[in-house]
Amino acid sequence: MPFNKDIKNNVELFKEVLRVDESFDLVYRTIKIKDRTACLFFIDGFIKDDIFEKIMEFFFRITDEKLLADPYTFSQNCIPYVEVDLTDNVDKLVQNVLSGMILVLIDGFDKGIVIDARTYPQRSVDEPDKDKVLRGSRDGFVETLVSNTALIRRRIRDPQLTVKIFSVGSISKTDVCLCYMDNKVDKKLLEKISNTLKNVKVDSLTMNQESLVEAIYPHKWYNPFPKIKYSERPDSTASSILEGNIVILIDNSPASLILPTSIFDLLEEADDYYFPPFTGTYLRLTRFLVTFATLFLTPVWLLFIKNPDLTPDFLKFLITDEPVNIPIFWQLMLLEIIIDGLRLAALNTPTFINTSLSIIGAIILSEFAVDTGWFSTETLLYMAFVAMANYSQPNFELGYSLKFMRVLLLILTYIFNVWGFVAGIVLIVVLLATNKTVSGKSYLYPLIPFNGKELCRKLIRINMKKAND
Which of 13, 215, 256, 230 is closest to 112 using CA atoms? Predict the structure, then answer.
């Protein structure tokens, strides 16, 4: 049944399509505007009651028939609200109602009137727990798309900032935004991502950003290194946009997707820029060093234990002489799993007992584990360092990528000794070197291909004025 001027047909059409009688929160209200019948469709819980009340007051005060001549005249003179749209596309009208807008149907009008007076339940823009900084702004993204774009607009007051919206998912019809600086963005990459979002075949984005990433960029399963950077900080996201990157924002998700992303981009953090260049450089280099240590500490220790003759004299103290009931390799592997188990337990533990259980878990895994002969003190020490050091870098996906590479090194070293350790390093280098960003460039740029000036910028926090010159 197409949209027409007969109010009865239109009301029956939308009642059937929206299945109003089956859903209690889908509401329709029939009213009189002067002598004409009108009907409003909306979702209870998405509308702003005070604004809706004001709109109804204006409708009831209309006495001039000339104001009801056509939809355009009516919308321009009788709707005291900013965002108003007219269309006769039934699918679009249905999607607007399900998105929280108000649909107004008036007898004799050949178009529906859509009023965007919606409001979504949302939490405050507090600083995200994962992306905390020592100094700087304390706001963070929330699950509402409009609020997130406003946080970026607040920081970039330039008409070149473009926010393009798409609807993704044949069922969910999730709002997805591309944010970029039109005068700095890679046009080919922008066109590629835009076309992908338009043509992506997916029912719904049930897992928000991860569902979208897997739909638009199916990566090779054997290469765990992330190609997209996630951030819940508006300041970091705005900075990435100003550098020419593309940011994807998804409704119902408090994280932005930043691309293209290299390994050096993943290791950057907001604190690097909230402190003077010298301090920022120290923090960055410390993070690089600790990240490097998390990858090689336990494999190198296992290699020294298996080959005492290859161990330098000043590192002889690393070789444990304690009697062990379980081989060191299996101790390390068990602890890799146990640490992740404790992390998952902490995520699902009520906040008010989280600290207590963490302390109990640490005691059990330290003193009691050593006394019962399950683990040696050195194994617990090194794995404790690895577990804590993982929190020194901000990217969660990169942390697990390094974990998988560390486990691979441990297995190869245990089986093939020195040659296994060397083969593991070669394999890691190959995975990094053959990896490509979303734009098709090297994952290790500016190291491969080498660009000395850009590599210096990635390693050393230079003065912002010089960086912009």
Answer: 13
